[in-house]
Amino acid sequence: MYDGLSLSRHGIAVMAELDHYTDRTKVYRYADQTGGLHFFREPTGGQQLELSYDPRNPSRASARQPLYGQVVMALVAVVGVGMACGGLGLTGYQLFLALRGGCSPGANGLRETSVA
């Protein structure tokens, strides 16, 4: 994710052409500013793929994502972090209750009854 954000701002954008398929990915080829040929693997994409590469290290590349894709990824990350924090908070609260002595009889609103 960091590469995608960093390279989309500071990298050089190129259109990569589909070169060949492997068993699970498509392999795209692109040329850097000096004409050097590089390859990029991506499971999705069509005949062309827009990439950003690092001018200091042209073999380091990332597929460019539209703004919509970046917003969706950010929302998923925020929801995931929120759920993780909520789960940890509830776990900590339950641990606190258990160590403090837990619920005393009758504290949960139920009456104790004796069986004769």
Walk me through the structure.
This is DUF3592 domain-containing protein. The chain crosses the membrane at residues 67-90. Keywords: Membrane, Transmembrane, Transmembrane helix. The longest helix has 34 residues, at 67-100. This protein has 116 residues and is α+β, with helices and mostly antiparallel strands. The model has no long low-confidence stretch (mean pLDDT 80). The protein folds into two domains: 2-64; 66-101. It is 37% helix and 31% strand. A hairpin with a 5-residue loop joins strand 2 (26-31) and strand 3 (37-42). The N and C termini lie far apart (66 Å). It has helices at 2-10, 67-100, and strands at residues 12-21, 26-31, 37-42, 48-54, 57-63. Strands 3-2-1-4-5 form a five-stranded antiparallel sheet.
Tell me the domain tally: 2
What overall form do the CA principal axes indicate?
A: elongated
Derived from helix and strand composition plus strand pairing, the structural class reads: alpha+beta
Tally of individual helices:
2
Distance from first to last alpha carbon: 66 Å
Keywords: Membrane, Transmembrane, Transmembrane helix
Protein name: DUF3592 domain-containing protein
Transmembrane segments: 67-90
Organism: Streptomyces clavifer
Question: Which key terms come to mind for this protein?
Answer:
116 residues, alpha+beta, 2 domains, five-stranded antiparallel beta sheet, elongated, DUF3592 domain-containing protein, transmembrane, membrane
